[in-house]
Amino acid sequence: MEEQPLPRPFVFGEVLFDCFPDGVQVLGGAPFNVAWHLQGLGLAPLLISRVGTDEHGQRVLAAMGTWDMDCGAVQQDPIHPTGKVEITLQGGQPSFNILPDQAYDFIDPDPLLKQLPSKSPPLLYRGTLAVRSPTSRRALETLSKMGDPPIFLDLNLRSPWWQYNLIEQALHTARWAKLNDAELFTLLEKRAENQEELVKLAQSVCHRFQLEWLLITLGEKGALLVVADNQFHWAKANPVKVVDTVGAGDAFSAVMIQALLQNWPLKQALERGVAFAAAVCTMQGAVTQDPQFYAGFMANWQEA
């Protein structure tokens, strides 16, 4: 019997360029990076976003085309520009100016019913930056009503573009959520001095919002996963030669989505997510166009 393809996850949110002082422009945005990794892992995601009818927008569509990604739900905006983040370096530390009124702020809810498959997706990934605007919030609400798909929430608290009430609403509608330890402390206005305190803080969020699980990424220390039934799992990161940590969290999200779609055990999913994110840190940029990078992980996971 021929193996049936997995249902396609939907990925909602921003596509943008990180623009550095030396003129380098790097295509990204958390949802875009997640969708790119999912494509590399063979899961054929549907990215729902919006770009301008400008040169940057054409570059987005061209890049997606080279990776054989579906552009059918990437809207084109004749008025607003493709997303940009201006990065400045002060004393070696980057600061980010996330420009307002970008194309991804205006994802139009009206065409979505025509653009999207009638069948509800098995999972809807969403971030938090794109819903800073009412228009894109309405688009997300439209998506959420299409069969009520379970939501994977990736919290990205980018000042000044987040509001506590919107984050709270997002958590209430999510089934699974991910954030890093610094964002957890910002959200709760509390810090953890040790592992036990960190587990308790994470569990408080998991229970309050009735999540199935909450993932806390810890950078070079690995990750913590707390589960609704009070179980928790740690995974340590193996030391790697770090080139660039940009997008490591997005890589982690992609693996956890694959784990959900393929019913991996949670501890195994966490360990694989840590390993994949660490590997992304050994290369320049958040994503790669090398199919062998993904093929190596896929082969190892199938053998295990």
TrEMBL record:
<keyword id="KW-0418">Kinase</keyword>
<comment type="similarity">
    <text>Belongs to the carbohydrate kinase PfkB family.</text>
</comment>
<feature type="domain" description="Carbohydrate kinase PfkB">
    <location>
        <begin position="24"/>
        <end position="289"/>
    </location>
</feature>
<keyword id="KW-0547">Nucleotide-binding</keyword>
<dbReference type="InterPro" id="IPR029056">
    <property type="entry name" value="Ribokinase-like"/>
</dbReference>
<dbReference type="GO" id="GO:0016301">
    <property type="term" value="F:kinase activity"/>
</dbReference>
<dbReference type="InterPro" id="IPR011611">
    <property type="entry name" value="PfkB_dom"/>
</dbReference>
<dbReference type="GO" id="GO:0005524">
    <property type="term" value="F:ATP binding"/>
</dbReference>
<keyword id="KW-0067">ATP-binding</keyword>
<dbReference type="Pfam" id="PF00294">
    <property type="entry name" value="PfkB"/>
</dbReference>
<dbReference type="InterPro" id="IPR050306">
    <property type="entry name" value="PfkB_Carbo_kinase"/>
</dbReference>
<keyword id="KW-0808">Transferase</keyword>
<protein>
    <submittedName>
        <fullName>Carbohydrate kinase</fullName>
    </submittedName>
</protein>
